[in-house]
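Chain A, query sequence.
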Amino acid sequence: MPRKTRIWYPGAIYHVICRGNHQQDIFKDEKDRLTYLSILKKAKEKHRFLLHAYCLMTNHLHLHLETAEVEISQTMKIINLHYVNYFNKKYGLTGHLFQGRFRSELVDKDGYNLEISRYIHLNPVRANMVRKPGDYPWSSFKFYLSGQEDDLVTKSKILGYFKNRSPFLYQNFVEEYLD
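Chain A, predicted structure.
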């Protein structure tokens, strides 16, 4: 049975999840995560997508990604292929790293954009890796709290839902689920 074609149009926003095959780790150390972020940055420059949020866990990752002129499947194929090649070479492996195709869910409502962003940033807290999302070094949450711009994460869409584009209000929105 053929795979169902993903819905795509310029400006489509997705919550993307990539899981390790057999629940294996896809990131074993800091260099793996830095390499993935570098690959993501290069793909962003080439495919011109917007990255609203990310979180690199141990055996999976989350991306909140908005396409421009390149379909999500093509973008993720390039990112995952480059990372798998790096990972397999580094660890002397062959074969699949990821569990099947990446999973993607179309985000078609403003409120859902906010929920996905919060969900992604709270992932390490729900996994009991940290107590607060700002304590986890491998997510985009820290960029939302800082006043600095990042060439990987585009904060304007998510912060645009809050008065004066306030990072403090976004932090409260995310962390209200901690209690």
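The chain has one domain: 13-175. The mean pLDDT is 94.
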